[in-house]
Design brief:
single chain; about 375 residues; alpha+beta; Protein Transport Mog1p, Chain A; 2 domains; 7-stranded antiparallel beta sheet; 6 helices; about 20% helix
Length: about 375
């Protein structure tokens, strides 16, 4: 048996443990020898991040073991009195990040009974999304209660025991990465900075995680995600092999409640995820192409917003808006030899142009029989 590490889990993590949800659905998948994909498929979370580590496993509650030390990942909802939360409002998004920092900092300060020296950095990832990275110094003379967790790694399993003494490595800082998703959910990732580590190196580690964030518009289809990891050139097919979609790398496949529906989302912008729905029907189940279209034509559209973009014998394309101009949409109807196909793209005023070319790229990759 090989001892892997001994570390102290201090009171710094206790506030976040209160945010544990009984409906949490989290898992991870190894991408290579030094990287794991962390998947949060809990309700209204639906995101993935990449964590550089050769070992990742769950310890307890919201705490994981990554890169030879604990990493805590929490998610909690917030209400800023706006029905759309921080969607499309960067100032509101940053304010939410700052508010959670203040909440966490105040708790840690009261718990330690000390004034904690802190600092922060507002970081924008490669997609332009804001993240708040902040930290505070561990009070050197603080004698707070600590739980010691000793982890052993064997060929077959990982054993965790709890002890009340002996600290192997001291913690110099507690470091946080805060970001929001879906307008009203906040995620906070925290790690300790150990005495044999440099603060700036750990900040860069969190920035790499921020750059890997991928937000889904709905529940992640875990089977398809796993298949895509094994085969990047993934082809999505229906059960009868009448529809074939060469899935672009940026498209996120979500679960579908129906056998004749594919559901997916586009890259997030401003806490908004655009969606695409692809519905098909055997021609033998419809009287005509017009009959199929009439069943799926848009309802409750804004007055005078409907525009014909293309109308051919086997393809029709429409643009319209809904909800007083908040939603910008397109419907495309296709007729094949054996199947009718309906494609719906739903975006918003601020994200329609951002994902429009991706939508057209996806449509070009669809083949029907």
């Amino acid at each position: 048996m090989k001892k892997l590490i001994i570390f102290a889990v201090t009171v710094f993590i206790s506030l976040s443990l209160q945010a544990q949800n009984n409906d949490v659905i989290r898992l991870s998948k190894k991408l290579d020898n030094n990287t794991y994909l962390f998947i949060d498929n809990s309700n209204i979370n639906w995101y993935t991040i990449e964590i550089k580590t050769d070992t990742l496993f769950h310890i307890e509650n919201n705490t994981y073991f990554a890169d030879n030390k604990p990493m805590q990942i929490i998610s909690l909802g917030f209400d800023n009195k706006n029905p759309r939360g921080t969607m499309g409002n960067e100032k509101a998004e940053i304010f939410a990040l700052q508010s959670h920092k203040k909440w966490e900092y105040d708790f840690q300060r009261k718990s330690s009974g000390k004034k904690l020296k802190s600092n922060e950095e507002l970081f924008y990832n490669k997609s332009g999304k804001p993240f708040l990275i902040w930290w505070f110094e561990n009070p050197k003379k603080w004698k707070g209660k600590e739980r010691i967790i000793e982890i052993y790694l064997t060929n077959d399993s990982i054993n965790i025991g709890e002890y009340e003494d002996a600290i192997e490595l001291n913690i110099t800082h507690q470091l946080y990465l805060n970001f929001s998703i879906h307008g009203n959910n906040l995620v906070s990732i925290s790690i300790p900075v150990l005495e044999n580590e440099k603060l700036q190196d750990e900040i860069e580690r969190l920035k790499n995680i921020a750059n890997s964030l991928n937000v889904y518009g709905g529940t992640i289809d875990l089977k398809i995600l796993s298949e895509r990891i094994e085969n990047p050139n993934y082809i999505l097919r229906d059960s009868l092999n009448l529809i074939e979609i060469e899935v672009p790398s940026w498209l996120n496949i979500c679960t579908s409640p129906y056998a004749t529906l594919f559901s997916a989302s586009f890259p997030e912008k401003d806490n908004i995820t655009n969606a695409v729905a692809i519905i098909w029907e055997l021609k033998s189940n419809s009287d005509s192409f017009d009959d199929f279209k009439s069943k799926l034509n848009a309802k409750n559209i804004d007055a005078n917003s409907l525009k014909i973009l293309n109308k051919e014998k086997s393809k029709e394309q429409y643009f319209y808006t809904r909800n007083y101009g908040w939603f910008y949409c397109q419907n495309i109807f296709l007729e094949g030899e054996d199947v009718y196909l309906y494609i719906n793209f739903t975006a918003t005023t601020t994200t329609y142009t951002f994902n429009l070319e991706r939508f057209y790229e996806l449509v070009d990759k669809i083949k029907i029989k």
